[in-house]
C-alpha cells in the first residue's frame, strides 16, 4: 500500500467503526444519573455548554481497534460492540480524572469538566463511566463477557499504575528511559492493547490470535507515545493544537528528553541542568530542543517508534486472520504513528 | 432475644466475619501498585504513617452482611468471600473519593489519604480499589461471579448518584424529605442492600431469598442513616468521635433537619432562616437543635428508623432461611440501628 492508500483505508475504517459505536455509546451514557449524563455528553463532544449539539468529539481509535479485532477473529463487528463501548468509556473515565489531576483547564480547545463543573463532578462522572463499562460488558450476550470485563478491570489497574508513576516522576530528577517506557506502557499501551484484544475475546478467538492482537495494540501504543512525545516538542502548532515546544514549556520528562539526559553526553548534562531550573524564555526553550536533538533523543525516539510499529505488524503477520481486517489494522496503526514531526 | 444478647450475637458475628475477610482483603490489596497499596493499607487501618502496624480499622459491616447472606442461602461463608472482599473494596473506594470531595481532612481521628498524599493519590487509589473489586469477583470460581460483578457495577452507579445528589443538595435550599430519602438510599442503602444480597447470589440462592436479603439490607441502610443523622445532632461526642451538634455546625441538611423545615410549622420556618444564615455561635446551635425537636424532626426520624428496621425484619421472616443466619442478621441490623441518641 502507498502512504496515501494506507491513510484512506484508516480514515474509512475509523469512520465506519465510529458510526457503529456512537449509537451504542449514546445508549450507555443515557443511563447515567442526570448530572453525570450532562457532563459525559459534553466531555464526549456531543453537546456544548449552552445545550447546542457539539462537533462530535474524538476519532474513537480504541473502539475502532475493538471492532477490527472482532473482525480479525472472523466475527461480525457487532459481536465486539460491548467491548468497543467499554474501552471508550474507560478511556474517558481516565481523561476526566487525569485532566483534574494534571490541572488541565482545556482539552481540544474546550473547558475540561472539572474546570467547568468543579472537581467533585469530574471525580463522580469518571467513576460512573468506569462502573458503566463493566455493566455494559456483563450485560452482553457473549459467553466471554466475564473474561472481557475481567480484562477491563485489570487494564484499568495498569492505567492507574501508569498515571501514578507519571505523577511520581514529576517529583523525581532521576527517571530512567526504561522507567519512562514502563510508565507509557501502563498509561497509553495497556488500553490500546486491551482494545485490540477485547473484540477477539468476545468473539471467542483462539488464544494465539487474541495474543497477537494484544501485542499489536501494545506495540502501536508504544509507537504512538513516542510519536506524541516528538510532536510535543517539534509538532506544528496548527496541527497539534498545542503551543510550539509545548512539552518543554511544561518541563515534561518525555521519552526523547529522558533519552537525551541519560545518553546524550555533554548535551544531556546541559539539558538536565536546564530541566532543574525554571527559565521559560523562548530562546532557552529552543536551546533545550536543540540539546534533545544533539543528545540523540529525537533520532532515538523516531527509530524506536518505527521499530515498535514494525513489531506490531510482525505480530499480526504470524497469525491467520482475514486479509481485510489485517489491512485495516495495519493501516490504522500506521495512521496513528506516521504523523509529521 | 434481650437487647444485650442481641448485641453479643452481633459483636461475635462481626468478629467472626472480620477474621474471615481480613486475610482475603489483604491478599487483594497486596496486588495493587506500590503507591496505591501503601495508601490503601493506611486507609484501612493496617499501617500507620510511620510504617508501624495500625489498629485494624473499621467493623467491616458490609463484609459481615455478605458472609451472613451466604450462610442464609445455606452455603458455607467461604462461598461468599469474594463478594465480602468486593463490597469492602467498593465501600473504601467511595470513602477515599468522598473524603476528597467533602474536603474532610480527618476520618476516625486519622489524616485522610488526600490530606496526607494529595488529591491525585486519593483519586487513583480509589479508582484502583473499584477496579480491584470487579477483578476479585470475576476470578472467583462461582458460576454466579458475573452476576455478582454486575451487581457491584450497578451498585457503584447508585452510590455515585447518591453522592452527586448530596453535593447538589448543598447548593439548594428547597430539598424535600423524599429527595433526601432517595439520596440516602443511593449513598448508604444501595451498598448495604448489595452486601446483603451478594453472598446469596454467589451461593446460587433462589430469587425470593436473594430479594428478601436485598430488602433487608436496604431497610437496615435506611434505618442506619436516620440514626446516624440523629447522632449527628444529639450524639455523645465521646461515643461518636465528632464534636457536639456536629451536623448543625456544618449546616448539613440531614433527614431530621429537612423534616422539621418542611413539616415543623413556625419552628421549621425559623430553622430554615437559621440554615440560610452563617452563625455558628454555641447558643444558636443549641437553639437550632431545639427547633429540629419542636418541629418534629427528632421524633419522626426515630419512629421512621424503627419502622424501617421492622420492615427489614419482616422481609427476612417471609423466607425460609437457616435460623442461626437469620438471628445473626437481625442482631447485626439491630446493633447498627439501636445506637444511643
TrEMBL record, chains A, B:
Transmembrane segments: none annotated. The keyword Metal-binding applies. Keywords: Magnesium, Metal-binding, Transferase. CDD domains: Trans_IPPS_HT (cd00685). It comes from the Bacteria. Belongs to the FPP/GGPP synthase family. It holds the Pfam family polyprenyl_synt. This is Polyprenyl synthetase family protein. The keyword Lyase does not apply.
Amino acid at each position: 500500500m502507498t502512504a496515501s492508500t494506507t491513510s484512506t483505508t484508516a480514515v474509512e475504517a475509523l469512520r465506519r467503526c465510529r458510526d457503529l459505536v456512537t449509537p451504542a455509546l449514546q445508549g450507555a451514557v443515557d443511563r447515567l444519573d442526570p448530572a453525570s449524563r450532562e457532563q459525559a455528553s459534553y466531555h464526549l463532544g456531543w453537546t456544548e455548554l449552552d445545550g447546542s449539539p457539539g462537533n462530535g468529539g474524538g476519532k474513537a481509535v480504541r473502539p475502532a481497534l475493538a471492532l477490527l479485532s472482532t473482525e480479525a477473529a472472523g466475527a461480525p463487528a457487532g459481536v465486539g460492540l460491548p467491548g468497543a463501548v467499554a474501552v471508550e468509556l474507560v478511556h474517558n473515565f481516565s481523561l476526566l480524572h487525569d485532566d483534574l489531576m494534571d490541572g488541565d483547564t482545556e482539552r481540544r480547545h474546550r473547558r475540561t469538566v472539572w474546570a467547568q463543573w468543579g472537581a467533585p463532578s469530574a471525580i463522580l462522572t469518571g467513576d460512573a463511566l468506569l462502573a458503566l463499562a463493566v455493566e455494559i460488558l456483563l450485560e452482553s450476550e457473549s459467553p466471554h463477557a466475564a473474561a472481557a470485563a475481567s480484562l477491563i478491570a485489570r487494564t484499568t489497574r495498569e492505567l492507574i499504575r501508569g498515571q501514578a508513576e507519571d505523577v511520581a516522576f514529576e517529583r523525581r530528577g532521576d527517571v530512567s528511559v526504561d522507567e519512562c517506557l514502563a510508565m507509557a506502557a501502563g498509561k497509553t499501551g495497556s488500553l490500546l492493547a486491551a482494545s485490540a484484544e477485547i473484540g477477539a475475546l468476545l468473539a471467542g478467538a483462539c488464544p494465539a490470535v487474541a495474543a497477537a492482537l494484544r501485542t499489536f495494540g501494545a506495540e502501536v501504543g508504544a509507537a504512538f507515545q513516542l510519536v506524541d512525545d516528538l510532536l510535543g516538542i517539534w509538532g506544528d502548532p496548527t496541527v497539534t493544537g498545542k503551543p510550539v515546544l509545548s512539552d518543554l514549556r511544561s518541563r515534561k520528562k518525555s521519552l526523547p528528553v529522558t533519552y537525551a539526559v541519560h545518553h546524550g553526553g555533554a548535551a544531556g548534562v546541559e539539558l538536565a541542568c536546564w530541566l532543574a531550573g525554571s527559565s521559560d524564555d523562548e530562546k532557552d526553550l529552543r536551546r533545550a530542543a536543540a540539546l534533545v536533538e544533539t543528545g540523540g533523543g529525537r533520532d532515538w525516539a523516531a527509530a524506536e517508534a518505527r521499530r515498535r510499529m514494525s513489531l506490531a505488524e510482525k505480530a499480526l503477520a504470524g497469525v491467520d486472520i482475514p486479509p481485510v481486517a489485517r489491512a485495516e489494522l495495519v493501516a490504522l496503526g500506521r495512521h496513528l504513528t506516521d504523523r509529521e514531526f
